[in-house]
Structures are given as C-alpha cells and as structure tokens.
C-alpha cells in the first residue's frame, strides 16, 4: 500500500528511547524521512528536506520564513517539545501551516533536573565525584538548600512545579512573572516581587520563562550585578535568556557563587569560555530527557500530527 503522507523527523531525540512513536507513524500510512545530520538543522539543511513533505516532527531546528516558504505540501509542524522560538510562527500562519507542541509532557522532568542542578552545583557533587574516582578523599565545602530563598523567573507550568518542589526544602519562594498569579500566590505561599528585588534577595535564581523579544537577555550585566555574591543562577529554559559573556565575566570574577546551565545560546556551545570555569555546572540540554517524558512526548507529537493530517 502506498504511503498516504510523507513525514520528516528532524528532532534528534525522537524515537531514541522507544520505537512506539515511529511505529505509530508507519501504522497510519506515513513514509518517514529522517534527519540525515543527527543534529539540529540549519535553514539551508531544512530547505531541500521540506520540499515534498506533508508534516514534520520538529526539534530545535531553524524553521525560518525562507525554510517554511520553500515547502510545497507542508501542512503541520508538530514540535517534539515545548518551545516554539525556533519556528517562524507568522510565516507558518501565512502558509496555513498548523504548529503544535507538547506543553505538559516535560514539566516534571525539567523540574527534577532544576533541583538536581541546584543541589549538584551548591554541594559541589561533580567535583567530589571526580575527586573520589581519582582515589582522593577531599572535603568539598558547599552551601545548603534547606530554608534558603529561591527566585523563580517565569511562573508557568514548570515554574509552578519548581515552587511546589521548593516547599519540600522549606524554601522562601519568590517569583517574578509578567502576569501575577494571585491563585498560586495564595495556595503555594509565593511572594511576587519585581525582578530587581527578586535578584537581590534570592539565594538561587532559576529561569523558567519563554524566549521572546521581551525576555531575550533578561539576565545581563546589570541583573547579574544585583545578585548576592553567595547566589547561584540556574537555567533549564532557553540559552538566549542570559548574556553569556556577562555571565562568564561574573563567574570568573567570583561575583556570584556559581551557575548551572542546561541550555546555551549556541548548542553545542563549542569554544564557549563558560566551559573553562570551575564554578559552573553544564549539561547538554537534557531537561526533558527521562524515559517517561520522551516516550510520552513522542506519542503526543505523533498524535498531534496524525490528527491534523487525517482531516485533510
């Protein structure tokens, strides 16, 4: 039986955990075109691949206006993940291409990683592990999390989940968001503050906002200067939220205690001076990388795509 649809999979992590999402595509009559580069695709990579496809399972690729308008048959971009900042939504709308994502799936996985990074960076767990592996028996003096203050920048699904986790550590929960959530404030004991005040008071500052023109570079030279010398900056959201040059200089000069970064402006961050510092913990954008989250994300991304294609 000839395939009903041709589907391009550009996400590099799709189907890495379980074959079920891919099998579901095939069961619904989809011919699959795989990402030939095994990395997020640039505009020039995408253009020839988009030429004759009906749908896409998209990762962190550059779905620019030029790339989107190069497609002849494209009807739906199903984002394998949450962020849509790499997709030109205006161009997609002009072309009549539906863009969908999987917003609920990775909330708990990213929240877990956020606290994992907080604990690891402030207790110097990676350094202690490497030292012990070498046969040493050093004493690594870190800082605690219990009853400290946490400043959450962006109180969406993940930000609220982080606040909920923070209650287990008896933390003073501070939050900044462009929309003040009175219900969460009452039920979770969250104290809403202006960004500058939050930065000045937080022992841990963790970023959970979308990347858009208003939030790009939200943490720069001025904002970093407001933080306590004993504070830590955590980013499991988007790399573009932080001025990385300013963060490097701040960490290098010991103006804050440390940082833990899962997302970078350029990924992978080859040659980034941040990688040369010993008071930063870095991970390769693994926020959603749990078996449960990846499988569910894959299934939902496939279902979103099939549901729309089936209406045609």
Secondary structure layout plus pairing:
Layout: E1 5-9, H1 20-27, E2 30-34, H2 43-50, E3 55-58, H3 65-70, E4 76-79, H4 89-95, E5 98-100, H5 107-123, H6 125-133, E6 149-153, H7 157-167, E7 172-176, H8 182-188, E8 191-192, H9 195-201, E9 204-207, H10 221-226, E10 232-235, H11 244-252, E11 258-261, E12 280-282, H12 291-309
Parallel strand pairs: 1-2, 1-3, 3-4, 4-5, 6-7, 6-9, 7-8, 9-10, 10-11, 11-12
Helix pairs in contact: 1-12, 5-7
Which properties best describe this structure?
seven-stranded parallel β-sheet; elongated; Rossmann fold; five-stranded parallel β-sheet; single chain; 312 residues; 37% helix; alpha/beta
Explain this structure to me?
The chain has 312 residues and is of the alpha/beta class. The protein folds into 2 domains: 5-105 and 291-309, NAD(P)-binding Rossmann-like Domain (Rossmann fold); 107-282, Rossmann fold, CATH 3.40.50. The protein is 37% helix and 15% strand. The chain is built from 12 helices and 12 strands. The protein has helices spanning 20-27, 43-50, 65-70, 89-95, 107-123, 125-133, 157-167, 182-188, 195-201, 221-226, 244-252, 291-309, and strands at 5-9, 30-34, 55-58, 76-79, 98-100, 149-153, 172-176, 191-192, 204-207, 232-235, 258-261, 280-282. Helix 5 (107-123) packs across helix 7 (157-167). It is elongated.
């Amino acid at each position: 039986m000839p395939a009903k649809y041709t589907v391009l999979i550009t996400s590099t992590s799709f189907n890495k955990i379980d074959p079920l999402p891919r099998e579901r595509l095939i069961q619904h009559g989809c011919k699959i075109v795989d990402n030939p580069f095994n990395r997020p695709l640039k505009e020039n990579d995408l253009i020839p691949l988009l030429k004759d496809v009906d749908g896409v399972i998209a990762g962190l690729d550059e779905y620019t206006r030029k790339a989107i308008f190069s497609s002849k048959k494209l009807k739906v971009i199903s984002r394998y993940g949450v962020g849509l900042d790499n997709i030109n939504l205006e161009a997609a709308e002009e072309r009549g291409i539906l863009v969908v994502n999987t917003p609920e799936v990775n909330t708990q996985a990213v929240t877990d990683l956020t606290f994992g990074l907080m604990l690891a960076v402030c207790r110097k767990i990676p350094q202690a592990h490497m030292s012990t592996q070498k046969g040493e028996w050093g004493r690594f003096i870190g800082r605690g999390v219990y009853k400290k203050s946490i400043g959450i920048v962006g109180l969406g699904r993940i930000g609220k989940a982080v606040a909920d986790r923070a209650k287990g550590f008896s933390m003073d929960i501070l939050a900044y968001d462009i929309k003040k959530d009175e219900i969460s404030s009452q039920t979770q004991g969250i104290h809403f503050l202006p960004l500058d005040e939050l930065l000045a008071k937080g022992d841990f500052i963790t970023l959970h906002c979308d990347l858009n023109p208003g939030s790009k570079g939200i943490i720069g030279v001025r904002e970093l200067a407001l933080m306590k010398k004993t504070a830590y900056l955590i980013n499991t959201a988007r790399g573009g939220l932080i001025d990385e040059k300013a963060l490097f200089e701040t960490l290098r000069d010991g103006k804050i205690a440390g940082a833990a970064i899962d997302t970078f402006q350029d990924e992978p961050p080859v040659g980034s001076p941040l990688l040369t510092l010993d008071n930063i913990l870095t991970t390769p954008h693994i926020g959603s990388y749990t078996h449960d989250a990846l499988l569910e994300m894959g299934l939902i991304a496939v279902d979103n795509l099939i549901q729309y294609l089936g209406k045609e």
